[in-house]
Amino acid sequence: MHVAVIGAGIIGVTTALALAERGHAVTIFDREGVAAGASGGNAGAFAFADVIPLATPGIMKKAPAWLLDPNGPLSIPPAYALKIAPWLLAFFKASLPARYRAAVAAQGALMGHSAAALERLVATHDLEPLLRREGQLQLYEGEREFRASLPGWEERRAVGVKFDLLTRAEEIAEIQPGLSPRFTHAGFTPDWKNVTDPAMWTNRLADMAQGRGATLVRAEIGALKPSESGVKLTGTDVNRAFDKVVVAAGAHSNRLTRQLGLSLPLETERGYNVTLPEGAFDLRTHVTFAGHGFVVSRIGDGIRVGGGVELGGLDLAPRMSRADALLAKAARFLPDLRTTGGRHWMGFRPSMPDSLPVIDVAPGNSRVILAFGHGHLGLTQSAGTAEIIADLVDGVPPAIDITPFRATRF
Ligand SMILES: Cc1cc2nc3c(=O)[nH]c(=O)nc-3n(C[C@H](O)[C@H](O)[C@H](O)COP(=O)(O)OP(=O)(O)OC[C@H]3O[C@@H](n4cnc5c(N)ncnc54)[C@H](O)[C@@H]3O)c2cc1C
Question: What is the domain-level CATH number for residue 179?
């Protein structure tokens, strides 16, 4: 079968590799090249402990306070406030207790599958040198914030996440020295992993897919038209039919799926970061500042400080002052951090209101497969998603139930 994959981000290239390994002829299209979007500049975490969706019960009470601070963890540029309203309504519905509990269970299942799929990928392709198995430290300021986090830790336990809760400064310092004393409590998740560099990881997988016969074409796909016998793709210098097409265009996927008559609540949560050069800080694990919505991770020989959520769509210019604000906070929380010489970046997380991706055969078009909307977890869930998508292309039942990830769930 000849399969086209639209998008050479982490979801597209991992899927292309899985398809090529199953003997399919694969063509990957990307208008900018491998890892040009969110997949190239993210925090590099296989965040298997992050099973709690953003839409938690009660979040709508907390959000207004966050929104008052233009550089806080959540922001909505005024120019985008009306456009994001329908997504926010779906987000609110996803935060209702029954929907929330179902989302945690679904996320837990996809995480378990993805963690196992990652180990298969690493073992088959000798990828261990590109991984760091250093766990993650999630930090809290004081007893009150820690206590408020405990129900979330119980929910993680229920879906099989392993963790240790730390309530003594010495225990925390043993894992990560050099933290501000304001962080008095923590949760440590030992099974969390990081890539040494997400751009390098994605490029390596793209190379491996090409090594197994996949072709990478730099072209923008403008239109897809399914018929009884195939799917015709047209775009810059492209006018070709394929047996099946995988849409893995990240936050841009709706521009293609609309042509199939689908109306999916895909938005982007824009995130920012600054990558500091070698010597910026002696980081020993992935650190998450839970109450501030940002993380610090090792990337190559440097340090990446980033996070935040800006619901600003795909077209507004980046506001790099958000990245600077994160860096200023990081300097307060890691007093020895050297903040000079950093590189700023913004990326488009492809986000659904319930924090679950769309992994499905397109409704009414069995030749088009949908693989996008992974939000904060695209790298984390890439290996698991790729196996499921390859099963859907082959028409065999996937390893986990994909009902919670169906395009028709909204
Ligand atoms: C600040 C930040 C930190 C993050 N940290 C993490 C983390 O630590 N762990 C984690 O798991 N996730 C993290 N994420 C989320 C993760 O980066 C995304 O979920 C993931 O990269 C999405 O991958 P993707 O392949 O779906 O999309 P993308 O990487 O955006 O790839 C989509 C590709 O499609 C191409 N494309 C789009 N339209 C077309 C078209 N019409 N024709 C041809 N090509 C097209 C684009 O050029 C792009 O290369 C983070 C995100 C941000 C912003």
Answer: 3.30.9.10
The answer to the question of residue 26 being in a domain is: yes
Instruction: Categorize the per-residue pLDDT at 218 as very low, low, confident or very high, splitting at 50, 70 and 90.
Output: very high
Domain shared by 213 and 82, yes or no? no
Predicted structure pTM score: 0.97
Q: How confident is the model at residue 72 (pLDDT cuts 50, 70, 90)?
A: confident
Model confidence at 66: pLDDT above 80: no
| CA triple 282-283-287, angle to 5 deg | 150
Based on the fold, state whether residues 87 and 64 are members of the same structural domain: yes
11 lines ligand 1 (CB under 6 A): yes
How far is the C-alpha of 233 from the C-alpha of 223, rounded, in Å?
A: 6
Of 334, 351, 368, which marks where a domain is finished? 351
Tell me, using a 6 A CB cutoff, whether residue 382 lines ligand 1: no
Residues 281 and 154 grouped into a single domain: yes
d(CA 330, CA 293): 11
In a domain, 334, yes or no: yes
Residue 162: domain span? 51-97+130-194+266-351
Query: For the chain, how long is the longest CA-to-CA vector?
Result: 65
Please write the tens of the pLDDT for every residue from 167-197: 999 999 999 999 999 999 999 999 999 999 9
**Residue 355 Rama label (left phi>0; alpha psi -120 to 50; beta):** left
Domain match, 368 and 397 both: yes
| Domain boundary pick from 307, 334, 351 | 351
- DSSP codes joined into one string, 68-85: HSTTSSEE--GGGHHHHH
Going by pLDDT thresholds of 50, 70 and 90, the confidence category of residue 63 is confident
Average pLDDT over all residues of the chain:
96
Task: Find where tokens 């009884």 sit.
Answer: 228
Please tell me if the CB atom of residue 374 comes closer than 6 angstroms to any atom of ligand 1.
yes
CA of 251 to the centre of ligand 1 (A): 7
Q: Which atom of ligand 1 is nearest to the CA of 35?
A: 49
What is each CA distance from 320 to 36, 95, 214, 337, in whole angstroms? 18, 30, 37, 20
How many domains are contained in the chain? 2
